[in-house]
Amino acid sequence: MSGIVGFINNQKNKKEITQKMIEKIIYRGTKHQSFYDDNQVGLGQCLLKNKENVTYQDNLAIVLDGNIFNKEELIKKLKLKKVTDAELILASYKKWGSEAPKYLKGDFAFVIWDKEKEILYGARDYFGIKPLFYSKKNDFIFASEIKAILAYPNLKKELNKDAIAPYLVFNFNPLEETFFKDVFTLKPGHYFIYQNGEFETKKYFEIQYEEVNYEKEKFVKLLADATAKSVQTSLKGEKKVGSFLSSGVDSSYLVCLAKPKKTFTVGYAEQRYSEITNAKELSEQLGIENKSRIINKDEFLEIVPKVMYHLEEPMADPGAVAFYFGTEAASQYCDVVTCGEGADEFFAGYGVYQDSFKFPAYAKIPFFMRRAVSKLVSKLPEFKGSEFLIRRGQKLEEWYTGLNWIFREKELKRYLNNQKIAPISLITKDAFDEFKGQNDLNKMLGFDVKFHLSKNFMVNVDRLSAAFSLDTRVPIANIDIFDIARKIPFEGKVSKTESKIYWRAAAQTIIPNESFKKKKLGFPVPLREWIKEENYYNHIKEMFSSDIAKEIFNYEALMKMLNDKNADYKKVWSLYSFLVWYHEFFKQN
């Protein structure tokens, strides 16, 4: 893990500016800082593990956050001797120009200053494992985190209100523009070019599905081999390695392959939400020490402001808060840990992917009749089963906004004060257009890779690991593994009773217990119970009564929701999370 920053301007104090930017994200690289500047650019990086300076060769300078895992293959192809990852990327850029990322496999975000051509060129990995932000309001600025961009001189920090409605629907910000006006995220699988004041981004990686009718055994062998190789290459040379471990198949599979010295699990006194017992059982079977951390309700609530500070944009997933405690625990013993992100979106691990098997008799009713029922029910107050009736009378593109939607679009006007609410379809249309001709399952998977994996889960993993200078690797989110996943037919992904079918079969070849059968729990948190208690109620009420809450939201609607014993706790928490985030970035000195 590293932190990178940079900009183009004609000021003389470039190193002073880059130093101030780096200071804001110094936890991303506590071992060494280095800088480069000339008449046009300033570049800086902070490194977690080594003492490399900003690499400068043949009028090319590069700052890099991340790792290249197909290094040996590229060294042979480019006929190089021993090189660093940064030097390898420069060699790839010299050979393939802006198409260089197509040849790289790993987790990376980098920016190259091509002094001869006067081009600033940057790229981000396929699935958004590593972050990269930029602003082009006045000068062109980039950084690993938004905090560093906000430290740039004379950049006005301003709330982007256009992000609020999409956040309330998605559970996170799905837009390219962040919650800070004029600060954007570079999309995964894209690169940018900045030259002569002109900026453009281009896609170098396309998510495509092409189902192949291999035998199950062949898919299982391909997955087992690719996953073992990914774990091996992503951890090569690392010594103090640990793994996050829940009771599920994904983290269990990685632990069996990585064989770390320690595993880390968070849990709660409320046993039905805790996965510690199962994690300890597997660890003991493998001869690995398991470190568990019991989170209590008071410390969970107390840490939310700090979590929002590190996430930089509001996130309504309570699992992110739990993950913060997990990274804190792991950082006391390890430099690198593995995490199982990616499997659910690649192989269909969430319950929503099995929706087509529910109430098959209703699906036999002609669509025009279901459509009429959907329109009627959508005008009525919510009742048990109403969501099902609405969905089954719509095309997927009309209702699907991913895994953890919070508010439906029609609800937003009830809670938002005098705000223009752009149709959510403006966000989702381009994504669904990419998957035309695919079955609904592949459309959902592609959508969730683009949005929920890269803009939600990968953000949590990166920022909350960085908070403790911990380098987290996600071996499943590997381009070779995805290339196999995209070819798996429907029946190899889900059935009425099972999810991730071929993936579980691959995991079964190495997991010594029944973890490969476990259903998805999704980082459970007892929030639905805690939120009813007086301490939580008072904290939330205080936020709901703040000036900014009354400015943005309908105060009466907020309080009605808060005082409704049957209200959806996820909606309450999403509003509260936004307000805590706002307080951290706009009310604190």
Report on the architecture of this protein.
There is one protein chain. The chain is of the alpha+beta class. The chain folds into three domains: 2-159 and 181-203, 4-Layer Sandwich (Glutamine Phosphoribosylpyrophosphate, subunit 1, domain 1); 216-349 and 445-517, Rossmann fold; 531-589, no CATH class. The chain has a six-stranded antiparallel β-sheet. A six-stranded antiparallel β-sheet has the order 4-5-6-7-11-12. It has a five-stranded parallel β-sheet with strand order 15-14-13-16-17, sandwiched between helices. Helix 9 (297-311) packs across helix 25 (569-587) and helix 22 packs antiparallel against helix 24. The longest helix is centred in the C-terminal third of the chain and has 27 residues, at 440-466. The relative contact order is 0.12. The model has no long low-confidence stretch (mean pLDDT 94).
Question: How many domains would you count in the coordinates?
Answer: 3
Computed over alpha carbons, the radius of gyration is 24 Å
Overall SS class:
alpha+beta
Named at the architecture level, the CATH assignment of the largest domain is 3-Layer(aba) Sandwich
Percent of sequence in beta strands: 15-25%
Query: What is the CATH C-level name of the largest domain?
Result: Alpha Beta
Biggest sheet layout = 6 strands, antiparallel
Helical percentage: 40-55%
The residue-averaged pLDDT reads 94
Shape: globular
CATH superfamily of the largest domain, please? HUPs
As laid out across the biggest beta sheet, the strand order is: 2-3-1-9-8-10
Distance between the termini: 28 Å
CATH overall fold name of the largest domain:
Rossmann fold
